[in-house]
Design goal:
The chain has a domain at 31-89. 46% of the residues lie in helices and 4% in strands. It contains three helices and two strands, in the order H-E-H-E-H. The chain has a two-stranded parallel sheet with strand order 1-2. Strand 1, helix 2 (45-61) and strand 2 (65-66) form a beta-alpha-beta unit. The radius of gyration is 16 Å and the shape is globular. 0% of the residues are buried. The model has no long low-confidence stretch (mean pLDDT 75).
């Protein structure tokens, strides 16, 4: 168990840390604001929320303004886009 109260499979946390280090998120010079999109249909919502908050805290520590965007209740961002696509396609 980690300090955040969630149980992870053996080696999971080390694997996530390795993936985060490997990702090396690159942002354009001068970036001041980041808007991560919450994943509303994740298989493990508490874990997804914990990772989102942890990443947001890290980016705030880098001097960025972070605002987490959340989809409408009952949707994820992809299904929201899919729901609007037919109306926009006919316009």
């Amino acid at each position: 168990m980690t300090g955040n109260g969630f149980r992870f499979p053996e080696g999971f946390v080390d694997d996530v840390r390795a993936r985060i280090r490997a990702a090396r998120l690159m942002m354009p010079a001068g970036t001041k604001r980041l808007i991560p999109l919450a994943d509303a249909d994740n298989a493990d919502p508490p874990l997804a929320e914990a990772l989102l908050r942890r990443a947001s805290t890290r980016f705030v520590g880098m001097g960025l303004t972070v605002s987490i965007a959340r989809p409408e209740e009952g949707y994820d961002f992809n299904s929201m886009l899919d729901a609007k696509a037919p109306a926009e396609a006919g316009a």
